[in-house]
Amino acid sequence: MASTLHDVARLAGVSIKTVSNVINDYPHIRPATKARVEQAIADLGYTPNLTARSLRSGRTGAIALAVPELALSYFAELAAAVIEAADEAGVVVLVEQTGGDRDRELELLRSPRLQMTDGLIFSALGMGQDDAEHLERPYPLVLLGERIFDAPVDHVTMRNVEAARAATEYLLASGRRRIAVVGAHPGEVIGSAGLRLRGYREALEAAGVPYDDSIISETTTWHRSNGARGMRDLLDRGVTFDAVFGLNDTLALGAMRVLQEAGIRVPEDVAVMGFDGLDEAQYSIPSLTTVDPGQRWIARTAVATLLERIRRTDAAGEPRLLLADFHIAERESAPSEAMIGA
Amino acid sequence: MASTLHDVARLAGVSIKTVSNVINDYPHIRPATKARVEQAIADLGYTPNLTARSLRSGRTGAIALAVPELALSYFAELAAAVIEAADEAGVVVLVEQTGGDRDRELELLRSPRLQMTDGLIFSALGMGQDDAEHLERPYPLVLLGERIFDAPVDHVTMRNVEAARAATEYLLASGRRRIAVVGAHPGEVIGSAGLRLRGYREALEAAGVPYDDSIISETTTWHRSNGARGMRDLLDRGVTFDAVFGLNDTLALGAMRVLQEAGIRVPEDVAVMGFDGLDEAQYSIPSLTTVDPGQRWIARTAVATLLERIRRTDAAGEPRLLLADFHIAERESAPSEAMIGA
User: Fold this and answer.
1) Testing the interface with A: which of B95, B225, B272 to mutate, by most A Cβ within 10 A?
2) b/e string for A58-83 if b means 16 or more Cβ within 10 A?
3) Measured between alpha carbons, how far is A101 from A219 in angstroms, rounded to an integer?
4) In order of start, what are the domains of chain A with their CATH numbers?
5) Mean pLDDT of chain B
6) CA of B70: which chain A residue's CA is closest?
């Protein structure tokens, strides 16, 4: 039998009203009384009815996080950091997987489920710029990702173009000239793939290196298996290249595996660069040089921004665009010095 | 301005009572009426107040999943599979990270937050057998993991002893005799580490191979970095071994990286075996031979079992122990044939 408010009041030797005040965290309760009630709650394993409580306070103490899928390591590490930051603020996280599908993303934005939470951190992948209006919802929302810009909501994201440009410049500075790309999305202008390819092209152009379609491999999703397939595709074309830029780490790791299966040495024959800064990239053979786009900062900033919006719905303020700093983590798959005679 | 029940009723041309019936999914509503109401809800972006709704129905449509941390790939892949299975049943998932800490696990079990959900899938790591009584809670709970057995709740888990024994037998059959272990927990009897080490010892004993403490490396947590440190520790000891059994895949991957850094060939000099069947293990160099302990089945079975308990709280029935089948995924790091002359 679950215990009741009455049981707690009796055990603590206080009125029901006092127990209720402690549960609802009202001010002006004597510390000794508060401690006695909390001890009684713990002893009885009493669980106050939060549903009733949230009806009164208008807050649920929960936020939602929507990501394409946790099986993509980037989103698993992002979710871990979001849950950690929320936990520090005493808030729980409801995690939704959308599969990166536009219809499911739109459905989620309209879903009555969101009433269970005080706000949403939304990593859009299927929706595009034309869907910006759908982000105007009657609840606090922080947007992640790079599919939609200038929407009427706070947006926390990475510097995709600059970071990808820096990664490409790094490869060029180490003496590479034929830099293949794995994970491109044909025709995409914004989105991670579109922006990172733009950064790549800007770096090539600045260095006077021609852009060559024949060393660009396209894959819609970004799992390790896609990177492996993308590299097999490049090898089948019979084109030459001395570096590969995987548009994320898992693509780069899949591609690096296939290169080595084919007897191609990394980095001697082909240097490999990733993007994400996953933990995994430190342990591959060779370890993966990558761009750390500031994911941890993004997660913590998204939580802080959302909680601030939840607290001060009255003074809404202008939507903000918050951009993370990035840095290149130099490892074995792409050393920074030119390799003479390689 | 958020729209109201009145707005929906007006747009759909029906009574408020009818809108309410559609939202609450009552039977005997004409399909055409239902469609009209749903269209009006979509057009207006109306979100019914679920908090009020759950007070009436006594259900929230949400379940909680507690795992040690999503940054451990095993739990990320588990959470992805749980969320997918729950989504198919129209249920959302609130994910909690406990850090594998006993106090935080116990606190979670008593937490009022759980009132926000209809039940809990609980992957315990810090709690032990003596804590079994704490699992007796006034809500549906399915236990995962191998820290507690014979508790008064449904338990879905893997066959740790048998699977680890099979992995060790596999290495012995391929001609290895000095099988080092990375990730052992000193003195642990149950728990993943304790049970897997028991399976390892059983296989050695059956083959007449002596157990040797000097090739057992201990690490409390199971990240890639722990596997790397464990292997450095073994190499520093100056002991000889011809195989390594990482008690999970990330340990094995960290260890494999350090072996190769030290110029030791995998599998020619030392074979490496993991445990978990992570996606990542297919792409390492060399690819990792591992035990797939049936994680996907565990996730789906846990969700189905919990939802069944939520539906029929009246007919509780005996707690069940549900065990997944396992299989060995043979890859490059430990081929099944003996390597002559290696």
Assistant:
1) B95
2) eebbbbbbbbbbbbbbbbbbbbbbbb
3) 16
4) 5-48 (1.10.260.40), 62-158+295-311 (3.40.50.2300), 160-293 (3.40.50.2300)
5) 89
6) A80
Distance (Å, whole) CA A257 – CA A280: 14
Give the bridge partners for B62, in sequence order: B92
Task: Tokens for B283, please give them.
Answer: 């792409």
Looking at residues B106-130, what average pLDDT do you find?
88
Regarding predicted confidence, which is higher, B112 or A272?
A272
Find chain B residues with C-beta within 8 A of A83's C-beta. 70, 95-97
> Which pair of structure tokens corresponds to residue A84?
């950690």
A85 at the B interface (CB within 8 A)?
Answer: no
CA distance B176 to chain A (A): 24
| Section B157-175 average pLDDT | 97
User: What is the distance in angstroms between the Cα of B264 and the nearest Cα belonging to chain A?
Assistant: 13
- Give the strand pairing for A271-275 and A216-218: unpaired
Tens of pLDDT, residue by residue over B4-23, are 677 888 888 887 778 777 77
Query: What is the interface pTM, i.e. ipTM, of the complex?
Result: 0.77
Chain B CB within 8 Å of residue A115 CB: yes
Q: How do residues A289-308 score in pLDDT, each as one tens digit?
A: 999 999 999 999 999 999 99
Which DSSP string corresponds to A241-302?
A: -SEEEESSHHHHHHHHHHHHHTT--TTTT-EEEEES--GGGGTSSSPPEEEE--HHHHHHHH
**Contact between A50 and B116 using a beta-carbon 8 Å cutoff:** yes
In chain A, which residue's Cα lies nearest the Cα of B138?
Answer: A2
Name the pLDDT band for A160 (thresholds 50, 70, 90): very high
Q: Which residues in B lie closer than 8 A to residue A52 (C-beta atoms)?
A: 55
Joined tokens for residue A247: 């548009």
Nearest CA in chain A to B280: A224
Q: If you measure CA to CA, which chain A residue comes closest to B109?
A: A45
Chain A residues touching residue B282 (CB < 8 angstroms): 224
